[in-house]
Specification:
The relative contact order is 0.16. This protein is an alpha/beta fold.
């Protein structure tokens, strides 16, 4: 049963919910509108006992590319703080969800998009996935929990190196350091297999 919004599409099938970022022309940026759409979708899904797994994925060659920098540059100090706190609350909601949350990373996973993936309980990646926290190149730092979650997952030294250099990792490198647990294609089928549900793959791939 599809539910469309300007920036995400939510599909439900039995015990599995799929949230797909759906603005490839904007590289699936996590704008204020997208965060509110995600918040709305999650608030409805996490209270449904029948839903056991929530999968987040992207479109085309992008999982999520983080905050919209053009939008970010227009925020004043107060609005920027509110934007940061919104992302923090939202990603903590993902981390605290009673459901199994899986990031099915189909491509570029950058900045705030990586923060979102880190909030999920499991991360799996397609062979062409790319990971980075490139904010250092712009003189900014990620503000949605990545500075805390990344060291817990891959260790402090590796996390510091990635954040201070902004360098990118391919999927196999991400697998080798424990950032993801599997590299497979198609990635959505991998996430569905992990969920142990019985969804129709045809339905969820619409």
């Amino acid at each position: 049963m599809p539910e469309d919004s300007p920036s995400i599409v939510t599909l439900l099938d039995d015990s599995v919910a799929l949230i797909r970022f759906n603005i490839p022309a904007q590289r699936n940026s996590l704008s204020l509108a997208t965060l509110h759409n995600l918040q709305s979708a999650l608030s409805e899904l996490i209270v449904v006992d029948e839903i056991k797994t929530i999968i987040l994925t992207g479109t085309a060659d992008v999982f999520a590319s983080g905050a919209d920098l053009r939008e970010l540059s227009q925020l004043d100090r107060v609005a920027a703080l509110e934007f940061s706190q919104l992302g923090q609350r939202l990603f903590q909601t993902i981390a605290d969800a009673k459901q199994l949350t899986i990031a099915a990373i189909n491509g570029y996973c950058m900045g705030g998009g990586l923060d979102l993936a880190l909030a999920c309980k499991i991360r799996v990646a397609s062979p062409n996935a790319i990971f980075a926290h490139p904010g250092v190149r712009l003189g900014i730092i990620t503000g949605w929990g990545g500075t805390q979650r990344l060291p817990r997952i891959i260790g402090r030294t590796r996390a510091m190196e990635l954040m201070l250099t902004g360098r990118s990792l391919g999927s196999e490198a991400a697998l080798s350091i424990g950032l993801v647990t599997r590299v497979e294609d198609p990635i959505l089928a991998c996430a569905l297999a992990i969920s142990h549900g019985s969804p129709s793959q045809v339905t969820l791939n619409r």
